[in-house]
Amino acid sequence: MRPLVADIDLAALCHNYRHACACAPQSRSVAIIKADAYGHGAIECAKALVGEAPAFGVACIEEALALRQAGIDTPIVLLEGIFSADELALVDEHGFWIAVHSAWQVEALLSFAPHRPIPVWLKVDSGMHRLGFAPEEIESLWARLSQAPQVGELVLMSHFASADASDSGYFEIQLQRIVALAHALKAPLSIANSPATLAWPVAHGDWNRPGIMLYGSDPLEVANASSRDLRPVMTLRSQVIALRDLAAGEPVGYAGRWRAPRPSRIAVVAAGYGDGYDRHAQDGTPVLVDGQRCTIAGKVSMDMLTVDVTDLPEVRIGSEVVLWGRAANGTVLSVDEVANGCDTISYTLLTGILPRVPRRYLSNDQA
Ligand SMILES: *Cc1c(COP(=O)(O)O)cnc(C)c1O
Q1: Cα 56 from Cα 351, distance rounded (Å)
Q2: CATH number of the domain that 320 lies in?
Q3: Could you say which residues bind substrate here (predicted)?
Q4: Which of 33, 34, 248, 363 could form a disulfide with 59 if both were Cys (CB 3.0 to 4.6 A apart)?
């Protein structure tokens, strides 16, 4: 069998979730598991967090229904609400909570007759300028929704454009706008994503919404003591399938991007962009071989990539390769470092791992 596998450490997921809660003891934390739990498998991750997380957050009703069909009856927030009015019947049937960010959603909700009031998270655009109502519109909407029989618990929500940055200027502007509104309306508040959960206690609300940190990626531009406690959840693991020795000056792979600067040994690894490993990985992107750091040498192919192992004479065919995560010897290569080498962010790497790569779940006892 092809050795490439994504090991998912559910104990690490629970650790990171508890860490998010410990960072914000006054808040309840919605575990964000949209996009198949950032590529980790939403059903398995939700099952690991059932009984801990008071609610899950997903992008759309399809993702929420898949969780219900798997037997998960925890509340689920649809972070973008409904995409068409006919979804309200399913929202009602399954007890989903909905974000409301647009006038048509308000009208659809207020002309619907649910069996029980639907919890609503009213979204204000505090400066991200993507979804949500302008701050000036909120007061009248809040009044309307809080009187409507269709509406259950009402929460004011917003999303930060730059809570991860070391320069907090725009973050503070957004925070001021939303906090002023929440005070005026005495509204329960939900604004903190992962970076705000880790670094901005002032942004902790009644409900926080940690996502990427649950998977062990550090969302902060500059790590802090708290973000360093996160544990990687996914280990993308493979093996060396071939080795070759090259004379100085010989090229490796497509277009010969990498050229041996000295007599070199190259390990060929079973993992490529056809698995979701980023083709933009530059020479020098880190990889662990037998738990030791080496670097990508040459362009990533569809099913393979090549690593310079000249300084590791012990490497054999079958040697363990970790593209990110934790090696057998305990060494960790963070997905954030790999993302740097690919000029991207951990979110795209994790959500990009394709179904071709089998997920292997390590439960609490095994991990
Ligand atoms: C994805 C998402 C989050 C989680 O963001 P992270 O940066 O992964 O913590 C929070 N809130 C909303 C509305 C989201 O869409």
Answers
A1: 18
A2: 2.40.37.10
A3: 130, 302
A4: 34
